[in-house]
Amino acid sequence: MGRTTLTTEEILRLRGQKNIVSPTKPYAFLVEPELAEYGNVVDVATIFLTNRECPYRCLMCDLWKNTLDVPVRDGDIVEQMRYALERMPDAKRLKLYNSGNFFDAKAIPRRDRIEIATLCRRFETVVVENHPSLCNQQCIEFKDRLDGKLEIAMGLETVHPEVLPLLNKQMTLDGFRHATEFLCVNDISVRAFVLLKPPYLNEREGIEWAVKSVEFAVGCGVSCVAVIPTRPGNGAIELLAERGDYSPPQLRSLESVLEQSLAGPKTYRVFADLWDAEKFSSCNECMAARIERIGQMNLTQTVPSPVQCHCGEVEPV
């Protein structure tokens, strides 16, 4: 099967313009409900930190749009956190997403981590994102500064043996497994990001490999998985779409992955990312009901009665 493969240079060349962002303000922040591991729904604050661009140029990533071309200065991240925390309602948990890797010293200055940890003390859990290759002693040192629990989110993306190398992730499944085992042994929880229908897969394959990826993550010790529909918008994905190597997943496919992942007894949580979910629906009549149902599955980890509709979004093909 002939697949379009893109180098880092080609991925960069296909990009559009970045958004204008400030090094002293987060580019977004919000509070939303999430089911905790002990079964209660809690409010979770998320701060989208403005940071330097991630050095890993993944094929499908569009997070570079809200990044800087230069590193932040010492103190900038702390100022961003203060700005957001002063303006958000109280929450039990905090996610710090920096469009890259929290433990990249060129992204989050080491000397800021003490003050960052101090600002995190009111939260029972703090979630940061990181590449598996950067999971090391720094993670343990930061965990020890927190009063609450540390959770590290890593992009697994897919376990498809041919597709993963084409994503320019610079990661192997063994690398992901070893990072997860290292974190778990050191009492750090792990959250994984799994892509629904990355490039090069059709609809049915997209569902199948997303479910397999969830299973692999959980087998490694991951306690929470977020399934994310692969979206267009970064230039490279549009080129792949033109060449027949990508099409957006259906909303029903996201629903199906969640249904299958929640089918049996669980020691983990699986969430579906519903950002812009309406763009993946081909039926206006059942779209709202499907999104509501997926949201219900997110918050209860149970599978409610299916949505009944005469449309084609009954069984993905």
Helix and strand layout, with pairings?
Layout: H1 8-13, E1 28-35, E2 41-48, H2 76-85, E3 93-97, H3 113-119, E4 125-129, H4 137-145, E5 149-157, H5 163-166, H6 173-185, E6 189-196, H7 203-220, E7 224-229, H8 236-242, H9 251-261, E8 269-272, H10 287-300
Parallel strand pairs: 2-3, 3-4, 4-5, 5-6, 6-7, 7-8
Antiparallel strand pairs: 1-2
Helix pairs in contact: 7-9, 9-10
List the defining traits of the structure above.
17% strand, RaSEA, single chain, 8-stranded mixed beta sheet, alpha/beta, 317 residues, iron-sulfur cluster binding, Elp3/MiaA/NifB-like_rSAM, TIM Barrel
In words, what does this structure look like?
With 317 residues, this protein is α/β, with parallel strands linked by helices. The chain has one domain: Aldolase class I (TIM Barrel), CATH 3.20.20. Helices cover 31% and strands 17% of the residues. The protein contains 10 helices and 8 strands. It has helices at residues 8-13, 76-85, 113-119, 137-145, 163-166, 173-185, 203-220, 236-242, 251-261, 287-300, and strands spanning 28-35, 41-48, 93-97, 125-129, 149-157, 189-196, 224-229, 269-272. It has an 8-stranded mixed beta sheet. Helix 9 packs parallel to helix 10. The protein is globular, with a radius of gyration of 19 Å. The mean pLDDT is 96.
